[in-house]
Design brief:
Elements (H helix, E strand, L loop, with lengths): L2 H9 L18 H13 L4 E2 L18 E3 L5 E5 L3 E6 L19 H14 L4 E2 L6 H9 L1 H10 L2 H19 L1
Parallel strand pairs: 1-5
Antiparallel strand pairs: 2-3, 3-4
Helix pairs in contact: 4-5
Length: 175
């Protein structure tokens, strides 16, 4: 069975030859990584991810530490064995919301390039995309405790943020 056939058979309850599998990546611990890689070699992922063209302009500097900032302004930290956690919240204080800049959208040309590259490299697999839910992104922007208080108090700002996020994501979906 090909990966696409396997996934379709599982979704349609037609008894795939095995359960469809998605390899989530390798841990930073070399012993665990080696063991998982052997498993991935034996059972390759039945899914793939979009392939984006290389960014225009000068290359980004390589990460020199286990911390980085994503396109939304959230500061992340990688902790062994392979855990990523947000440690800096760009909207921790609502006073920063008035000047907060959402990430730039991809251009239609880059979407077209990504579509072409993904089709060429998909190897008859379904493509998985996305980076979490609206709720998760709100946690990354505000911090879990702040978000829970916002929701409990039914703060106006959280509704405005959510509306802006939906508009942002709809723009990307429609491209």
């Amino acid at each position: 069975m090909t990966s696409r056939e396997r996934v379709a058979a599982a979704v349609e309850f037609r008894g795939p030859d095995r359960i469809p599998f998605r390899s989530p990546g390798l841990p930073s611990d070399p012993a665990r990584a080696q063991a998982l890689q052997a498993l991935y070699d034996r059972y390759p992922s039945d899914f793939t991810h979009p392939t984006w063209p290389k960014p225009e302009g000068p290359p980004r500097p390589r990460r020199q530490s286990d911390q980085y900032v994503d396109d939304w302004g959230c500061r992340w930290e990688r902790r062994p064995p392979n855990v990523r956690q947000v440690i800096g919240y760009p909207l921790e204080d609502w006073a920063d919301f008035a000047t907060y800049q959402f990430p730039k959208h991809q251009t239609p040309e880059r979407y077209a390039q990504a579509d072409q590259l993904t089709r060429e490299q998909a190897n008859h697999k379904y493509v998985l995309t996305g980076a979490g839910s609206l709720f998760e992104r709100m946690q990354y922007l505000r911090g879990f405790e702040n978000l829970m208080v916002d929701l409990a108090e039914n703060r106006k700002e959280i509704h405005v943020l959510l509306d802006r996020m939906v508009e942002h994501y709809l723009h990307d979906i429609q491209e």
